[in-house]
Structures are given as structure tokens and as C-alpha cells.
Amino acid sequence: QLQLQESGPGLVKPSETLSLTCTVSGGSISSSSYYWGWIRQPPGKGLEWIGSIYYSGSTYYNPSLKSRVTISVDTSKNQFSLKLSSVTAADTAVYYCARHNLIYGDYDPVLDYWGQGTLVTVSS
Amino acid sequence: SYVLTQPPSVSVAPGKTARITCGGNNIGSKSVHWYQQKPGQAPVLVIYYDSDRPSGIPERFSGSNSGNTATLTISRVEAGDEADYYCQVWDSSSDPLGVFGGGTKLTVL
Which whole number is the average pLDDT over A103-122? Predict the structure, then answer.
């Protein structure tokens, strides 16, 4: 059974960089059928897609965050990572990693496996 | 950018049918996915590509999509269906952008 697990600091200071890693177990991150991505949810609010990455390193980002976001992949560790720079209190959220399943081949993926999420608080 | 509009809340009695709508400009031309999220838990996919159901999701869950509205229908609602439901599409006008609706809180009376 595929599992995704987020890890990283739960507290980040304003203006610093948020860094999270998602470890994939029970399956290979190098499969041609999937992208891997990040979604966040501020407390009490809805879901916001951040971006995704292919095992080759190809990425898509939410334009609203693109100037501050970097998603990278380490196939040797079966992990992918998120970096969000210059954070403010508005970046406080639960961050989820999720598998983007390219069921029909083109980029219209289904988010079919999710990590449990990790709360990141931005505060001094 | 593309906007998805959901009602903030829907209430239904046990055993009845709940319908949760997701509005968007010509959404019928897009594939809609639906996620269920219970408090303190990660979202779970319940419907994908408008009307397909993942394994393990009860047949009570169904979906449709036409014109400017997609609908998630839950038949014979149970107490355990109480959750937030989110619709989601990909806006591919330029690079693909994942777009979620604002979410609908389903309350089982």
C-alpha cells in the first residue's frame, strides 16, 4: 500500500524559508504514470494547490506562489521536497503531499494518495 | 484564473439524498474530481473524472457534470458521510493549475 509522509519543521520564522520533504513508501517515485505534488490548507480554510513535479524534474507551480516556491525530487531516496521562501503568517497551514495520478496520460491527474499532513506555523 | 463555486453548507437527514454542486464557467468541458475531508484528516478521493468511483468508495457516491455545474450526489446518507467536500479541476489555459472549490460542509441532521 502506497504511503506518503511529510516531514520538516513545524515552526518557521517570518521572512525565512519553509522546507518540507515527502517520503514515498510502497511504490516508486520514478514511475512514468505520476506527478508528485503539494497542497496546503490554512487553519479553518479550504485547499490550495501549490505545485507538482515529475520524476524527471519537470515542474508546474501555482502562479500565485511561483516566485517563492521550489519543488525538487530525489529519486534515490524516493522523496520530493518543497521550499517556500520569504514566508509570512499567511503561509501558516497544514501542508499535504499527494500523488498526482495521470490515469489517462495527459496532465489531468487525480490526487489519489495523500500524506497525513503537517502543520507549519509561521511566527517569530 | 478559473473559479469554482460551492455552497458553504448542505444539510440532509439520514437516509435522504444530498446533492453538492460545483459551479464554474463551462465546467462541463473539464474533468471534475471530488474529495471528502473529515476533521483532522487528509482529503480522500471519492469521485474522479466526473463520475468514476475509486475502489472502496460506496456506490452511494456518484457524480455528474454538464454545462456550468458539476454535482456530487450522496444517496442514503449516513452519519459517517458528514464531512467537508471539495471539487477540483485543472485549469490548463497556460501551465496546468490545480483549482479547488471553496468546500461544502455536509451536515447530517
Answer: 92
